[in-house]
Predict the structure.
Amino acid sequence: MNKKVLIVEDDTFLKDLSSAKLTKEGFQVTSVGNAVEAAASLEKDAPDLILLDLVLPGTDGFGVLQKIRENPKFTKTPVIVFSNLSDDSDVEKATTLGASLYMIKSNFTLDELVSKIKTLLG
Amino acid sequence: MDKSAKEIAALKKENEELKKLIAFRSDLISLSAHHMRTSLSAVRWILKMLIDKDFGELTKEQDGMIGRAFESSGRMVEQINEMLALGHKDTSNFEYKFEKTDIISLIDSVLFDFTGESFKNGIEIIFLKPDTELPKFVFDREKIRVVLQNLVENAIRYSNKGDKVFISVAKKEKAFEVSVRDTGIGITEEGGKSVFEKFYRTKEAIEKEPHGTGVGLYTSKRIVEDHGGKIWFENMEGHGTTFSFTIPLSLPEML
């Protein structure tokens, strides 16, 4: 059974790229562009891991993360915050809210992301 | 008395306004960096996927060119990161965390991070550890790490294949002193005058390494001086440079 990854990313191009890469690596990928779609997708089909951008239209990634962790179903689901924000305060906030890992997009390539995902999924 | 109270109030108000302005500028820097990184992420991811043959085989020439584009985009990321670090250090976010720290283990850890790069460039890094054990000193570990990184990085960058870089640390009467000596290209007298200035790069440095930002030494100087220490260099043009800095054993109380 392929592991399921939910990508929450509003930049269509980055979303398509990461989705293509993860699919190629054998993951079953669902990708959404905002908090509302994320909530709907989580309701429908529980992912094994969530890749979460922070700057989103409407409710931002912090809000999404908070909602995820409030849901008993997802308290243990690994969440990688994948953002280009790098202020200490952002990293700290995400970590406090329960992010498993904080990665700055431009500092990593997609193959490095894949290896982090594989590590987190054991 | 009344007058001075008024003056103080006016100064306070001005101070608040300046703080707001600085915070605004800092936000602006973060935001611009976020935009630049987003565009850059896409470029880097695609280049890496091409290199990894995700889109099929490449000719040797294509592979070489794309490899260079990938490296170049990596430097851009570094520059953004550096700009961001500097932008924030220039604001109220430049805060220090002082703790008793073992300088030897810090240097070891910095040098470890450079093993790959020094090996790639054919440069040997030698840490001349003191004979006697050093006590722990009070300083900001992460900030001094930045200083050490800048000095070691420069030493590697401005050396040639086969050169050596020596790092030493010693306890003096009122301070401890760290030196990074290289056998690289050296600094001319003219260049030496401005080498600690922001965005300044010597002609020789630009020739050797076109992609530097000219903020490493500026930042280092600021960090060392905020610790109450000194940073300087001694030069043998064409035979290398020694950069040294001191951190007082008892940090000034204003910190």
Notes: Residues 4-120 of chain A form a domain with the Rossmann fold fold (CATH 3.40.50.2300). DSSP finds five helices and five strands in chain A.
